[in-house]
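User: Hey, my collaborator sent me this sequence without any context and asked if I could get a structure. I don't really work with proteins. Can you help?
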Amino acid sequence: MSLSSLMQALRSEFFVARYALGARLLIFIPSAAAAVQSTASKIADTGTAARDSLMNSVSFDDVTASNAWGHFVDGLDTGITLLFLLLVAQAAYSFSAEVESGTLRHQLIRRSSRRLIVISKLLQLHALALMGVGVLIVSSYLLSGLLWEFGPVVEDGFELISEAEIRSEIALGLRLALTPLPAAIALGLLLSILANTATQAVVSALGITLAMDIFKGMLGDYAYYLYASFQPALIDQSYLQDVGRLVRGYSDVLVDDRVIQFNYWVPIPTLLVLVTASLIVVQTRKL
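Assistant: No problem. I've predicted the 3D structure and written it out in structure-token form, which is a compact way to encode the shape of the chain:
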């Protein structure tokens, strides 16, 4: 496998992605979902503020609701949850759809090996993920700043959490939330190689992802060895969800350092196992 062959395969993948609807949806739908959530939150906050003004009552929740940081984290959480599902589906579709349509054989004829195609698809999916995350962060930050005001968490004139601490917690939450992303992509790609049809691959990938999300709560401490336990999900146990409470001034959020270490390290061997399995299986797969 030469570098020139890899670059040729990558150019082919990005050329296809340029005109593929799935790639565009993957980049922009998470941001759109976060924008819809922020807009709905603003409408709800406006109604609550009007009611409290009539009743002359102001609570701590009302004060924190006007701070943009909490809504920014909520948008990130929603967007990344959707991004995980879209990436798993896109990864599952990528290889199986080309096998089903016969276009994969054209790449093999052009001196691209099977393993090279798998690696190029893996890199392309990670590039799409980075673009999706970048658009999500920028759009959520701008919209949150437009609808609310960024600032420290203050109660009765006392600063509970400074903006520097808030930014630090959000950065940590983002790192921990995105660490399982490569493993999720690798799972979708492995199922894409194993499946006979694109539909079978996508349904299997989403089904397994949602099953891990549903049943991870039943595993107890063993859930720490499952990468899906740390990603933002429909049943959310990720650190990013806790950050949403921390940046609103709630001090009842306790996170074990051991859990953070698991969050950093468990997805890495999972990724290596899934990628290795993909490279082995693709050699024996009938195309």
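In plain terms: The radius of gyration is 22 Å. You can pass these tokens on to your collaborator as they are.
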